[in-house]
């Protein structure tokens, strides 16, 4: 499956698609980490945000850096978080990459997949479902 997915992504690589493919690859690595350990390196989030903000003004970059730092600061003080800070960072990145309307569709599909596929009531790795949804919507738009 990895060969088919990788082949599909990299045969479509050109000047117009390098940014979304790089963004999906970055969050794909985060999804693998999240699936196995329910955590991932923070540098992946910063790379994903940088790709999502490609071409935006420096003011937008500063605002997003502040929001992302605020998310991490608040999350570290939350005694029992119901959602991971990585999930929130992925939301922020996706919103800047594709917009708020696309984000609503993306979240609906990801949450539906997580509820249908995963029957456990404990914490689950949500980033893999977010990535599957992002990949689906990107392929549908292409």
Keywords:
142 residues, mainly alpha, 7 helices, transmembrane helix, membrane, transmembrane
Explain this structure.
By secondary structure, this protein is mostly helical. The chain has one domain. The protein is built from 7 helices and no strands. The protein has helices spanning 2-11, 18-37, 42-52, 58-76, 85-98, 100-117, 127-141. Helix 2 (18-37) runs antiparallel to helix 3. The protein is globular.
Mean pLDDT: 87
- End-to-end distance, in Å? 20 Å
Stretches with pLDDT under 50, minimum 5 residues: none
Instruction: Please state the CA-atom Rg, rounded to the nearest Å.
Output: 15 Å
Task: Summarize, please.
The protein has seven helices and no strands. It has 142 residues and is mainly alpha-helical.
Describe the secondary structure blueprint for this structure.
Blueprint: H1 2-11, H2 18-37, H3 42-52, H4 58-76, H5 85-98, H6 100-117, H7 127-141
Helix pairs in contact: 2-3, 2-7, 3-5, 4-5, 5-6, 6-7
């Amino acid at each position: 499956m990895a060969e088919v997915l990788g082949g599909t992504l990299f045969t479509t690589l050109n000047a117009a698609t390098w940014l979304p493919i790089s963004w999906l690859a970055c969050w794909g690595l985060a999804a693998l980490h999240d699936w196995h350990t329910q955590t991932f390196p923070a540098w992946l989030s910063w790379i994903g945000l940088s790709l999502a903000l490609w071409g935006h003004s420096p003011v937008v970059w500063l605002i997003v850096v502040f929001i992302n730092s605020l998310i991490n600061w608040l999350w570290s003080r939350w005694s029992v978080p119901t959602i991971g800070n990585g999930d929130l960072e992925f939301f922020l990145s996706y919103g800047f990459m594709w917009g708020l309307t696309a984000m609503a569709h993306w979240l609906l599909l990801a949450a539906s997949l997580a509820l249908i596929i995963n029957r456990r009531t404990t914490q689950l790795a949500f980033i893999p479902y977010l990535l599957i949804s992002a990949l689906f919507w990107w392929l549908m738009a292409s």
